[in-house]
Amino acid sequence: MLMNRLILLFLALCLSLVMTAQDIKEEFENVLIEKSAGIETISCRFTQVRTMSVLAHDVRKEGHFTCVRPGNILLAFEDGDYIKLTDTHFKMRNAGAVTDMKISTNHMLKELKRILSACMTGDVRMLSSGFEIDVEDAGSFYEVSLLPLRNRGAAQMKSVILHFEKQDMSLDLLLFEEASGDSITYEFTEKKFNVSVDEELFR
Q1: DSSP state letters, 21-88
Q2: 30-52 b/e (C-beta count within 10 Å ≥ 16 → b)
Q3: d(CA 24, CA 138)
Q4: Sheet hosting strand 157-165, strand order edge to edge
Q5: DSSP code, position 170
Q6: Which DSSP helix (H) or strand (E) runs through 8?
Q7: How many Cα atoms sit within 13 Å of 184 on the Cβ side?
Q8: Counting Cβ atoms within 10 Å, is residue 73 exposed (0-12), middle (13-18) or buried (19+)?
Q9: CB within 8 A of 203, min separation 6: which ones?
Q10: Which domains does the chain have, with CATH numbers?
Q11: pLDDT exceeds cutoff 50 at 142
Q12: pLDDT at 35
């Protein structure tokens, strides 16, 4: 009899934890949609930190981030390099060399574009598509963990971690973790919303 009670208590505890996690996820989704509805542009500072096993130290670069809804994204580094994403193309300048390609030809680029666009527009379906999603309430922010489903062919990507500031549901941190152990982190600060953006940046 005691054993049966313990089993029932354990099952009730597990169910309570599942329901709590589901409640947090639904709360996050609803607030994200609500807060992002009126945002058309984002302008802010960013810091990129790249960690690679072949390097003794992390590589840190800073710059300015611009995003125009639904999916024009520009990361302009202070040294003149940049990463530009539009509806169809990816363009990058790195140490003077310029690369220009269609986003559809590179899986990692498609994922980066899709995740950033989803964060901007509040499209939770787009954000979680192809991923197992977990949401935790971390006090002043939500921590969202995305684990790629194996059938998406994203074996090189281990996980994606995102931090959303609760006050305005803007993205504070974006962390890509590769299966190799390498990672790249973006931290976003000094955010301004719905500011005027020069359209020539994305031509």
Answers
A1: HHHHHHHHHHHHHHHHTT--EEEEEEEEEEE-TT-SS-EEEEEEEEEETTTEEEEEETTS-EEEE-SS
A2: ebbeebbeebebbbbebebeebe
A3: 11
A4: 97-102, 89-94, 82-85, 72-77, 59-68, 41-51, 183-193, 171-178, 157-165, 141-148, 131-137
A5: -
A6: helix 2-36
A7: 6
A8: buried
A9: none
A10: 2-202 (2.50.20.10)
A11: yes
A12: 84
Determine the pLDDT at residue 18: 44
Q: How many Å apart are CA 67 and CA 185, to the nearest integer?
A: 18
Q: Do 46 and 62 meet the contact criterion of CB atoms below 8 Å apart?
A: yes
Distance, in Å, from the CA atom of 131 to the CA atom of 39, rounded to the nearest integer, reads 25
Q: How far apart, in Å, are the Cα atoms of 66 and each of 21, 49, 75, 125?
A: 33, 18, 7, 23
What the block records as the tokens of 166 is 């609760």
DSSP H helices, 131-172, are: none
Q: What is the pTM of this model?
A: 0.80
